[in-house]
Design a protein that fits this description.
Layout lengths: L1 E7 L3 H10 L9 E6 L12 E2 L2 E7 L6 H11 L4 E5 L3 E3 L3 H9 L4 E10 L5 H9 L9 E3 L6 E5 H6 L12 H11 L3 E12 L5 H22 L3 H22 L5 H22 L7 H12 L4 H14 L16 H4 L1 H8 L2 H18 L9
Parallel strand pairs: 1-2, 1-5, 2-4, 7-10
Antiparallel strand pairs: 3-4, 5-9, 6-10, 7-9, 8-10
Length: 372
């Protein structure tokens, strides 16, 4: 028996799309369990079954987060196999079929396929498609990590590992689950012949907030090990960005460079804010970074206005008035990517036309996101 577990928090449209997509699968689940994690408007379904499979909706009175909602879903599963999928997942037709084949091996704990961002063709969509952590490999085999978007596991494995343990809050439930499965000696398997499309449309602000929430801990730890602030920020944020810019230009997606610039500058500023708050760097460093960024973008006023407004939306505080003494930091060594974009005329294009593409995508709207 197979139980499909999914969950929603103010994502009724995405969940209905997931359920509508299910009949395309080559193997159908025997039951469907939906956890409504305290949506403002309770999720309702006219039918009590889907293709003959009983459908149960478990309504939580308030939003409890990923750990609680997913733990309830998996624990309520009656099936021998749990197919866990976020409501923004769209599985390839044979996803479950191939997972079942792998799960016949008692040493296999979890199975998934390749994850693909399928979120439109605007600047954010292109950025996520190119750089959105698509978990791929050439041949089926063991991996170190399986993202929570969609996977299959035997219910006895879930019970044996004790679920998520004592974790009930926060993020990273997929990392916790994978760690506990591996600790019990089970393998995590990825089969690239099957895939899951992630279709949630995110706006650029949600993307930056999501990545900050995911990566800030590692970034802060890295920065505290690095004696030079500019050197650390360059290595942590700018160096990877330079490689991404090359890819964006090569793939004719120049507007995605704006998303990248917002992502990197917001993370640099947020890092400086946290380091200042903890006393690891002198007060005023964040402001001096923002002022230098503002100065260097002065030739492109349309671009500069949008970036400043977006930084405020992400959560970067623009201090006013300025401190009496501003620390001397070589920000040009960090902002080297601005010179590259300027020399290539990329900023001229963004200022004249690219910002329009960014705003047009925003006008199309985005799906609900906890990272807004």
């Amino acid at each position: 028996m197979i139980t499909c577990c999914t969950y929603t928090y103010n994502d009724a449209g995405l969940l209905r799309g997931f359920l509508a997509d299910m009949p395309k699968w080559s193997v159908q689940p025997d039951e469907v369990v939906i956890v409504d994690d305290g949506s403002d408007e309770p999720f309702a379904c006219e039918d009590s079954s889907l293709n003959g499979a009983p459908l149960r909706i478990i309504r939580l009175p308030d939003n409890r987060g990923f750990f609680v909602s997913k733990s309830i879903a998996y624990s309520e599963a009656s099936g021998d196999v749990i197919l866990a999928a976020d409501c923004d997942a769209r599985l390839s037709a044979r996803f479950l079929e191939y997972c079942l084949t792998h799960l016949k091996n008692p040493k296999t704990g979890m199975v998934t396929g390749a994850r693909v961002q399928d979120v439109g063709h605007g600047p954010v969509g292109e950025f996520l498609r190119m750089f959105g952590d698509n978990y791929r490999q050439d041949l089926p085999g063991p991996v170190d990590f399986i993202p929570a978007i969609a996977f299959a596991m035997r219910s006895n494995v879930w019970r044996e590992i004790g679920g998520f343990g004592d974790r009930t809050a926060g993020i990273g439930e997929d990392h916790v689950l994978c760690g506990r499965v591996k600790a019990r000696g089970y393998a995590l398997v990825c089969d690239p012949r099957i895939f899951v499309n992630q279709v949630r449309r995110l706006d650029r602000i949600a993307v930056c907030r999501r990545y900050w929430r995911w990566l800030s801990g590692n970034a802060m730890a890295f920065m505290r090990r690095t004696p030079s602030l500019p050197e650390g920020l360059y290595g942590c944020f700018v160096q990877p960005m330079l490689r991404r810019i090359e890819i964006s230009v090569r793939r004719d997606a120049p507007a995605s460079v704006y998303v990248d610039m917002l992502y990197v500058t917001s993370h640099i500023a947020l890092t400086c804010q946290e380091l200042e708050a903890s006393g690891d760097i002198a007060p005023g460093c964040c402001l001096s970074f923002l002022r230098r960024l503002e100065e260097k973008l002065r030739p492109w006023p349309v671009l500069a206005r949008l970036l400043k407004a977006d930084l405020l939306r992400v959560g970067v505080a623009w201090p006013h008035p300025a401190p009496n003494a501003t620390p001397a930091v070589d920000w040009d060594a960090v902002l080297v990517f601005l010179e590259i974009c300027a020399e290539s005329k990329l900023f001229d294009w963004l200022n004249a036309d690219g910002v329009r593409h960014v705003l047009e995508e925003e006008a199309e709207g985005a799906d609900f996101s906890a990272y807004r």
